[in-house]
Automatic annotation (TrEMBL):
Underlying gene: glpK
EC number: 2.7.1.30
Catalytic activity: glycerol + ATP = sn-glycerol 3-phosphate + ADP + H(+)
InterPro entries the UniProt entry points to: ATPase_NBD, Carb_kinase_FGGY, Carb_kinase_FGGY_CS, FGGY_C, FGGY_N, Glycerol_kin
GO CC, alphabetical: cytosol
Top-tier EC class: transferase
Name this polypeptide is given: Glycerol kinase
One protein family per Pfam: FGGY_C
């Protein structure tokens, strides 16, 4: 048997997944690694943990499938985005821990740059906002705060990369310092109009440009894995950031197509075609994919807390034992109570970008209990998605037209398995929710990129036909009820925001 090996290096674990010729999953292996929180709002990973858990997962997945490296046609890598690594190219060691996408340590620096009026340039060139979320600010922090780092960078001794880039450099035994366009687009240093690293922004942040990797297409010759790792050389021919990879795995190749991934957070991407649109509503513009040098753009809404609110019910409040129990409690909730939970545990992401507000619950009575809490928690994810979709519609006046007045949202991620949540999502959006058979769309996307590059998988058009619906959810809610419920949510948000 021949397979494509997809590596999915995520925020809490590394996974390796084998896809067969029919693009079906043959085996999965997963390994978690420690999270470090050295200060309030700081989140770090040890880069060696990322690399080692990737290697272990790859070896284990081969064992599970009873396969050998001879069976692997090529490798695809998808990764947690924005997370930043800086390493010494002579020793091969990172000079600081990886600073994770969730890390907020550069909030003050961002505010000061905003006050000096730089956000407009950042938005126009990169499609992003001036926010600690993105790699550029994290890279600046490392160069400014690690002893001797700036001088070493100027001397050409240091390299920067998002996680894909770091893994490829290690796997190729220091040969290839590369990344793909979707990861580059999350650094705040890459001009998504000109398709190049941006000199002006690098100057503003005092980042020497020799530290940056070469940017390739998503399906490209990235590197050859050194034979010391798996006993045989093997090509890496597909790379994409995890949310873009999920959009590809969901075959969102036409303008107007949207996917929404419900993991720890929620990330919705809307394909907007080959023209860059800048959002009026604080959505991000990003590269959905770059194939044969041609960019397809997406509008992205990022919600920081989705499935994590269910983890909080389980680990914090201890009112459920397993994530799947939440919907069973929700079904028993008192219909006469209208609770709204705003899970702003670390502030709110799109479209509010309020870093200082914190979570709140409205509508508590003496009769409120675990059932109502569970219902409000699940519903909060749907309301937050509606905020994103409303912003997308407002940004793209022809959004409904482009989708024939029928908004269809393709969903994936752990929380998408909750029928109750998906039905409420459909009801509150007044849209159709399509859940595919393969929920591992992140890995599938990059497996297809790698397989397509080496001729193992078919073209984009054929791949789209491979997308198979598992379940469709249609809205059953009256529009007056929808409006009333959503008005209540907006009121809850208004009361929670610190930045009015
Ligand atoms: N049946 C369910 N109902 C509600 N939430 C769920 C359910 N199953 C999983 N989740 C949530 O989904 C998340 C896990 O999804 P996953 O896609 O594995 O996330 P990640 O890749 O971010 O770790 C968890 O936060 C969990 O609380
Ligand atoms: O690793 P995940 O699935 O939590 O995804 C993280 C995103 O890429 C952050 O932008």
């Amino acid at each position: 048997m021949k397979y494509i090996l997809a590596i999915d290096q995520g925020t809490t674990s590394s996974r390796a997944i084998l896809f067969n010729k029919q693009m079906k999953i043959e085996a999965v292996s997963q390994e978690e690694f420690p999270q470090y929180f050295p200060n309030s709002g700081w989140v770090e990973h040890n880069p060696n943990d990322l690399f080692e858990t990737v290697i272990n997962s790859c070896k284990n997945v081969l064992k599970k499938a009873n396969a050998t490296i001879e069976d692997i046609v090529s490798i695809g890598i998808t990764n947690q985005r924005e997370t930043t690594v800086v390493w010494d190219k002579n020793t091969g060691e990172a000079i600081y821990n990886a600073i994770v996408w969730q890390d907020r340590r550069t909030a003050k620096e961002c505010s000061s740059l905003k006050e000096q009026g730089y956000e407009k340039t950042i938005v126009e060139k990169t499609g992003l906002l001036l926010d600690p979320y993105f790699s550029g600010m994290k890279l600046k922090w490392i160069l400014d705060n690690v002893d001797g780092a700036k001088q070493k960078a100027i001397n050409g001794d240091l390299l920067f990369g998002t996680v894909d880039s770091f893994l490829i450099w290690k796997l190729s035994e220091k040969e290839n310092h590369v990344t793909d366009a979707t990861n580059a687009a999350r650094t705040m240093l890459f001009n998504i109009k000109t398709n190049k690293w941006d000199e002006e922004i690098c100057k503003l942040l005092d980042i020497p440009m020799n530290i940056l990797p070469t940017v390739k297409d998503c399906a490209d010759d990235f590197a050859i894995v050194n034979k010391k790792f798996f006993g045989k050389e093997i090509s890496i021919s597909g790379v994409a950031g995890d949310q873009q990879s999920a959009a590809i795995g969901q075959a969102c190749f036409e303008p107007g197509m949207v996917k929404s991934t419900y993991g720890t957070g929620c990330f919705a991407l809307l394909n907007i075609g080959d023209k860059m649109v800048t959002s009026k509503n604080k959505l991000l513009t990003t590269i959905a994919y770059r194939l044969d040098g041609k960019i397809t753009y997406a509008l992205e809404g990022s919600i920081f807390i989705a499935g994590a609110v269910i983890q909080w019910l389980r680990d914090g409040l201890k009112i459920i034992n397993h994530a799947k129990d939440a919907q069973e409690l929700a079904k028993k909730a008192d219909v006469n109570q209208q609770l709204y939970m705003v899970p702003a545990f670390t502030g709110l992401g799109a479209p509010y970008w309020d870093t200082t507000c914190r979570g709140a619950i409205y509508g508590l009575t003496r009769a409120t209990g675990p059932n109502e809490f569970s219902k409000a928690a699940l519903e909060s994810v749907a309301y937050q998605t509606k905020d994103l979709l409303e912003a997308m519609k407002d940004d793209l006046c022809n959004f409904d037209e482009a989708s024939n007045n029928k908004t269809i949202l393709r969903v994936d991620g752990g929380m998408a398995s909750s029928d109750y949540t998906m039905q409420f999502l459909s009801d509150i959006l007044g849209a159709t929710i399509d859940r595919p058979e393969i929920l591992e769309t992140t890995a599938l996307g990059v497996a297809w990129l790698a397989g397509m590059k080496v001729g193992f998988y078919p073209s984009k058009e054929e791949f789209s036909k491979n997308w198979i619906l598992e379940k469709r959810f249609n809205s059953n809610m009256k529009s007056e009820t929808r409006e009333k419920l959503y008005d209540g949510w907006k009121d809850a948000i208004e009361r929670t925001l610190t930045r009015k």
